[in-house]
Request: fold
Amino acid sequence: MGDLRDDVVRILFESSFMTLATADDAGAPWATPVEFSCDEELRFYWTSHVDARHSRNVRGNARAALSIYDSTQTPGVRAEVQGVYAEGSVEELREEDLAAVLPRLRRWIEWREASHPQRSRAAADSSGDATAWRQYRLTPEKLYALDPAGHPDIPGVRVWKVELDLAERFARAYRSRLT
Reply:
């Protein structure tokens, strides 16, 4: 399973967007793509408008899930590792939390822009009310990937989700890439 974890870490570093799945307090689901950053502890961050549906959802129900996948795969061709899935809790960061978080996130964004200049962010639109935007963090409780080996006990079942512990491997990759 070592190669699977390495492949999942690679996908995390090569991806810019994740699909965030939230539900409102009545359980109505919503999925949306958001640009993300990570910190060394493998927590996922994004910025959204406070009135966005997913932002309203996490205020009423802090449970969420995400998926990040390799969108360069050829359709119909079975890729070895298709992506990573996570579930956890979301918090809206307070202003006092941002001082500690922003330097780490800037490192991630600078690394991404240096590594993938074709994906560099366009200049942010400075119009509008800056107080209407918030930084959010999803702290995963569980991470999963599809095991390319398939089901361990049932031959022929090729799609099999396994839980992964990426903490140490991701932290090591994070430090080596972002220093």
About this structure: DSSP finds four helices and eight strands in the chain. The chain has a mean pLDDT of 84.
